[in-house]
Each structure stands twice: as structure tokens, then as C-alpha cells.
Amino acid sequence: MTEATTGNAIADRIAGRLALYLGPHTGRVAVKTFSVKALGRGPETLTLRDVPALQQALRPMLRTFVGRAQCEIVLEQIARELGL
User: Fold this and answer.
1) Most exposed residue of 10, 13, 45, 54, measured as fewest CB within 10 angstroms of its CB?
2) How far, in Å, CA of 62 to CA of 77, rounded?
């Protein structure tokens, strides 16, 4: 997917999944932006407990870029990859 950039496996896996649809740079920026927006802290601090809140924050942006149906598929893929 993408190279590790945050030092956090969860953030990197989410960015990697998003990169398939948004490109690697936008995938990383989205994780960073929405981690701060939804959680008030950077992606390097993400835990599995944070993923649902991050998914909720990503949803409107993903719907805009990939459409409603594909957005839900991407979010489900993220959850499945992380064992949620």
C-alpha cells in the first residue's frame, strides 16, 4: 500500500487503504487531518478504540470523493483489516 509515515501501524493501514482510492498523499493527509479533527490529536496516537470515530469523521469526505456506496465499502474494508 503506502510506506509507513506516522510510526503508527493503525494510521498507516488506514492511509494505505485510502490511498487506493485517493492516492498516497491524500490518504496520509486525510488520516492526519481527520485524526486531529475527530480526536484532537495526531495519527501517531491512534488506537483501535479511535477507529470508529475516525471513520465517522472520514465519511463525508469519502462520500464526496468516491460516492455513498463505495464510501461504505471502504470503511468496512478498514474495519475488517483492523479486526473490528
Assistant:
1) 45
2) 13
